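Q: Here's a chain of 664 amino acids. Please give me its 3D structure as tokens.
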Amino acid sequence: MSTRKPKAIVQDALRLYWGIMIVMFIALFLRLAWLQLVQTEIYRTKAVSNTMRWVPIEASRGEIVDRNGQVLVTNRPVFNVTLNYPGLKDQDIDQVITDLVEILADPEITFESIKTLLKRQNRLYEPVLVKRDVSMEVVTIIEESRRDLPGVSVEVHPQRAYPYDSLAGHLLGYVHSIKEELDDPAFKDYSINDLVGKTGLEKFYESYLRGQKGYRQVEVTSLNQPVREIRKISPVPGHKLVLTLDLELQQVLEESFDQVLGEVQKRYPKAQAGGAVVLDVKTAQVLAMASRPGLDPDDFNGRSLSQDQADYYFRITPPALGNRVIQGSYVPGSIFKPITGMAGLHSGQVSLEETVRCTGQYWHPPYIKCWAVHGQTDFYKGMARSCNVYFQEIARRAGIRLIGQIGREFGLGARTGIDLPFESVGILPDLEWQAKEFAKRRQRVNQDFDQKVEVLEKEYQALLAKAENKTRLERELASRLRVLEAQRQNEINFQTTWHDFDTYNTAIGQGYNQFTIMQMANYVATLANRGVRHQPYLVEKIVDAEGNLVEKFHSEIIQTTTVSREVLEEVITGMTLTTAPGGTAYSLFWNFPEDIKVAAKTGTAQPGRVGYVKNKDFDGLFIAFAPADDPQIAFAGVIEHGNSGSGSAGLMAKAVFEAYFGLN
């Protein structure tokens, strides 16, 4: 039994109580000190973020102007509807989305589509852009319904505008909502709301054009509605592209293109597509470029295509989306003959005066026909009259190796390096191409015959399983396998051998030859420049919003050909005879003044594409430069199903040359 007095027990209890209280007060004091001294800034930030929002300010994309400062692409302010959902309950968000869909009344914008946008948004502080370029009526409805639409805002953003509508649409390109690019590390600084260049210059120079976003820090209500602006970081506009393009010449090219297509279609209804380009001979600057069917960048300007527009660009033949000048590959036809002519003269196996007798058909298999009977034909006559027989004989003497070498020196069958995306490479069937192509053919033949052998062996395995006398079947199988192997070798030998008739076809621009219109233009510009090949380009310089120079581009020499100046001059003389009396292009330039002689070559090609009828459907091609003795500009053009160069693409060249030299 304890002997302690009650008073002592009470005193001990009080000491314990006060000890506990003191410890608790010390802990509370330390916690308050920690919060005040250490974590003040953290909690202040959290408190502010509950009432503050960072709202991005879109930067204006850089303008695009022609060589004389004429604006081709600019920006205009539009109203965009956005939704900022953090802080809203799920049921509130669903109701807001439902109401917003009803107000916008756009079949492309549904409850599900907005939900998908919200899920894809990886920057919770940024509003989700729901619809671009809404009408003032929609803006008014949203503003009047602000209390019922928490998180919904109407913001003014810059959007692309095109003072000349669809003019130069393919080369300018278009912008559209970013999608698959978000998976590319190069686009890590972009958000789901951004527009990005998809084609043309807009894509190629995206990093210069886009600018840098700004931000506004705004105080918002509990309904996510802005109350006041706290601070602002201004956006930085994108850089301006100053092009080599000449607006007036571009207008002439496109107007003549449409007129020519209209006229040609009266005789050849399939003539609905093609392309043309004009280069400065001495620099390879692009002065004008057009592709048909045309492209209107405003159709894609941050909005979805209508059904008719989608059909026009993607489904109807010929589709309009691609730029045929750099993406289409065309059988060149007779515009290739100057290459063959250079090879012949360069080889020393052909003289200018020697004649070849044209009876309307070459005398070596496969006896390729000429378009007329030209009789005794020398070099100049062969060029002026575009004689197939003459150039086949030249090719037989010069050989495909030299023809391919010279074609490559003039840039055929290789990308030009122009500052546009999606440029095709084309085909020049030189030795390098043959090696790659023959390897592919050998592989295809082996795969085909391996399948045949497999089928045959399975067939005999089934027969042998049931047969009593297997010897006869085994001998029969071995015999059939030997036949297949012989067929395989014959097919490989044929498919992987360059035949004489391949050379004859190549010589007149048929066979495997396929070039882009840009390659054709650079080839004729190189010829005009007496063998000096430049890299074509579209942007002369880039300047910032204040006009300060960011980057300047200059003409770059890619190669000087091995063809002598004397041979080049003779070929050019032959091309000037094409526009003289008796030449295939005389009807186009007969009234041009003597000091503006045009050197040209017409072409009629059977491409063998899907939908073409053999010996009936032909493309019309034309290359030219002027003046012949001191060239300034070069032209190349193709009209699909145009039938003849002088009757189709040549008419565009005439209009362009008349405008450029002031002959109208």
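Q: Can you summarize the key feature?
A: The chain is about 40% helix and 20% strand.
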